[in-house]
Amino acid sequence: MNKETRQFITENINADIHHLALQSARFPLVDMPLVIRQINGKQKIKSKVPLFYNTEDVLYPAQLSLEQSSSESTAKYKSTLCEGKTLTDLTGGFGVDCFFMSINFEDVSYVERQEELCVLTTHNFNILKRDHIRIINSDAEKYLSEMEHVDWIFIDPARRNSSGNKVVLLSDCEPDVSVLSTLLLEKASHVMLKLSPMMDITAAVRELPTTSEVHIVSTDNECKEILLILQQTAPKSLLIKAVNINKKNENQFFEYDLNEEINASASYTSNIERYLYEPNTSLMKSGAFKIICSRFDLYKLHNNTHLYTSTKLLLQFPGRIFEVKKMWGNSKNELKELTEKTPKANISTRNYPQTVDELRKKLKIKEGGDIYLFACTLVNEKKVILECKKC
Questions:
Q1: What distance, in Å, lies between the first and last C-alpha atoms of the chain?
Q2: Angle at 344 between CA 342 and CA 349, to 5 degrees
Q3: d(CA 305, CA 357)
């Protein structure tokens, strides 16, 4: 990167890249394709991977590799799950996961089949002073068959088909980890597998019976990825951890043994108490619908309404907490009064015959404000709307 190109990037870091692409003839000394990629990369990565953004001379890959890379917060979380002497990342990509996990290992191998990504990551790891990471330009399956035994293998299979469409089945990912699982566990004491947040966890664990831990990771209540930890033999029990990483550093964690949930009993009520509890996205994805009742002494509103209530304010609950102001019925008069009283509200539906859009149109209530309406079904099958304020 020449001096003119570097200066142009610095001066135009917040510019519209589509506009810049039309200006290349005006700046003959500037490598405009590199400028476009760098500015686009820095704009995309600013909040996603702040360390890379704030490190001068880090180079950025094509758009798809940026989209598929982990965030700094989720990569740091992975780094808390593994440690040892040797680690091999079989699907290196932009290298965010490999970079942050490498802090816990003496000897790290980054494997990537795209030569351009290998060149780029070699440069970046040098800039970021990760000198103990070896860059290997190879296909994951080929390298796996030839590699020496390591403590940990990390693999993030591609979740797009040949047409570029996203896939969620384990067998549709590339490489197919369900086929490679035996070889993976021959080559490593532990395997960490990153999957789509849309993945059916039950189906994945069924295909990978040596899974000992499942981690469902969200950031700011948006599910980002599912991590499976595979061990050498099938475990007696499966540990599930629901994690919500918050920008305010108010991270939420909930873990349980799958057998606990299977054997748990939920307590139901049609009497709405003072507080309403909505599990965060990771907890919902985990399927821990019954054990929440016993852990927090809560009542569930309905088997298919994943909302809970209590007279107590439980600030440690892993989700959103609301104070219930009023319960509205579904009669014409009540809905009319609700509409007149509430010009603006945040509406959610849980086990309710209408969608949010349908209900909003029916009630003629605008979106926003500090009132939250939960339209749901109670255990007695009564349809109600709970008017709440966030705690």
A1: 52
A2: 90
A3: 19
Name residue 164's amino acid: G
Is there a contact between 18 and 36 (Cβ–Cβ < 8 Å)? no
**Radius of gyration, CA atoms only, the chain:** 25
252 three-state secondary structure: strand
Model-level pTM? Answer: 0.92
Q: What fold characterizes domain 265-390?
A: VC0802-like (3.30.2130)
The pair of three-digit structure tokens given for residue 92, joined into one six-digit string: 């290196």
**116: its two tokens:** 């351009």
- pLDDT tens digit sequence for 21-63: 888 888 888 888 888 999 999 999 999 999 999 998 899 998 8
Contact assessment for residue 55 and residue 70, using Cβ atoms and an 8 Å cutoff: no
How far is Cα 354 from Cα 384, in angstroms, rounded to an integer? 12
The residue behind tokens 């109600």 is 384
- Which backbone phi and psi does 356 adopt, to 5 degrees? -60, -45
**Residue 373: how many other CB atoms lie within 10 Å:** 22
Tokens 């255990």: give the residue: 379
Domain range annotation of the chain: 1-45, 67-258, 265-390
**What pLDDT score does 163 carry?**
57
Edge-to-edge strand list for the sheet holding 222-230: 133-137, 107-112, 86-89, 150-155, 188-195, 222-230, 211-219, 239-245, 252-257
Q: How confident is the model at residue 72 (pLDDT cuts 50, 70, 90)?
A: very high
CB burial readout 267-279, b (16+ within 10 A) else e: eebeebeebbbbb
Is CATH 3.40.50.150 the classification given to domain 67-258? yes
Which of 194, 237, 236, 198 has its CA nearest to residue 215? 194
- Give the H/E segment covering residue 254: strand 252-257
- Identify the residue whose tokens are 């849309």: 198
User: What DSSP designation does 28 have?
Assistant: T
Q: How many CB atoms lie within 10 A of CB 119?
A: 14
Contact in structure between 127 and 58 (CB atoms under 8 Å): yes
State how far the Cα of 207 lies from the Cα of 181, in Å rounded to an integer.
Answer: 9
**Sequence letter at residue 50:** P
For 358-382, the DSSP string reads: HHHHHHT-EEEEEEEEEEEE-TT--
For 370, counting Cβ atoms within 10 Å of its Cβ (0-12 exposed, 13-18 middle, 19+ buried), the class is: exposed
